[in-house]
Amino acid sequence: MNDAFILAGIRDVARKHVGWEGPIEPDMRLVEDLSLDSIKLLTLAIEVENRFQICLDPERDHELITVRDLVAAISHQISDTQKPEEENSHRDTEDTE
Amino acid sequence: MNIASVGSALPPHFYDQETLLAALRANWTQRHHNVDRLEALHRNVLVGGRHLALPIEEYDNLKTWGDSNDAWTRVAQDVGETAILRALEKAGLGVDDVDALIFVTVTGVATPSIDARLMNRLHLPPRVKRMPIFGLGCVAGAAGIARAADYVRAYPDQVAVLLSVELCSLTLQRQDLSIPNLIASGLFGDGAAAAVVVGAERRADGPQVIDSRSIFYPDSEEVMGWDISESGFKIVLSAGVPEVVKHYLGRDVDAFLDDHGLSRSDIRSWVSHPGGPKVLTAMEEALELPDGALDVTWNSLRSVGNLSSTSVLMVLEDTMSDHRPEPGSLGLMLAMGPGFCSELVLLRW
Predict the structure, then answer these.
(1) CATH 3.30.1330.200 given to domain A3-96
(2) Are residue B339 and residue B190 in the same domain, yes or no?
(3) Do B179 and A43 touch (CB under 8 A)?
(4) Mutate to test the interface with B, among A16, A30, A38 (most CBs of B within 10 A)
(5) What is the CATH number of the domain that holds B242?
(6) Which site among B31, B34, B39, B223 would you substitute to test the A interface, given the most A Cβ atoms closer than 10 Å to its Cβ?
(7) ipTM value for the complex
(8) Local confidence band at B32 (pLDDT 50, 70, 90 cut-offs)
(9) B60 close contact with A: CB closer than 8 A
(10) Half-sphere exposure of residue B14, counting CA atoms within 13 Å on the CB side?
(11) Are B232 and B303 in a shared domain?
């Protein structure tokens, strides 16, 4: 899943769940530029978790300053989620061989 | 004029937060992927448990707003009756002594209003002037005391009873899995409290109401409130409440006290609506309160949750019974609510 796809997902979530109608670019700041208060930030985090079927680390929410940070966190979690499956898939192949 | 007494009544169905979490969790998993985050959100409100209007298994039977409101009308009378009788007994008064009955709520609607139904159940005198007030929300406990004091200021030989009933659990929209509703489902509980306020010509042991002040914050309607949907009250909750506290409460308290030649350091006891942890922390910072100043309020939040307008009256009841300030010392009762607005009540113990 590439960053452009993730960014498109964030745009869709922001429009549907926090009422953001404007453009969303990677350099934009979540609080200052997207006008997200703490409840809207939480809503955005939870809804991207739902969309991408991942669990972000709530302890690291404060590190999400820009849209780019959020894209990176989602990308990282997706990679982590897929790793065990890939490893299993690789092992299965070896077993078959 | 004085607050002669406060009595409260909680529904008998108490559940700790973990039991409530378990009941809500199944609903959350229908839509949310990271349920652990939602559980953490519930634990962060620091509420240990809550009393509910109904046994928890009965909430599944509430299919419509009508069902919920019917339950509200029934239970509101039960807890309201008990709260009034307890308050009157503490004040050494009977139902025949009541001249005015102010009823505040934001969690259900009834016509005849609950105060009218209690006229019959309690056999209150037919002359009682009834004032049902809907919609003030959390501020209504402090605002109700202020309006009751206004009443007995006009009729110094009379007795006004303020009744607050809030059955927040009956407003919960279980199909609404938005974050404000999830926060509300972790924070708000059910209960009732009544305060007896008497005019200057009557004797009373409780604190004297010296003055009160209402403060309305223009163009802040979106901070908190209800949207009305086919299924009932849908909560509107923004992160703006702590911000309002930080920006305005210190200024407004100072202006109110200054009109009496006082400052914050003259206030020995603080009787506050709990809101939630962020609101209370913002209040402590904005008012630069000494350690422990809001302990009674924090304990109320931990014990039973936020009971909207009922909470500040229960904090007052606890203060009067278990943490009574020095005679002659000054206290400030305060609450905030939808509008957005504040109510301040200056007390002399």
Answers:
(1) no
(2) no
(3) yes
(4) A38
(5) 3.40.47.10
(6) B34
(7) 0.74
(8) confident
(9) no
(10) 10
(11) yes
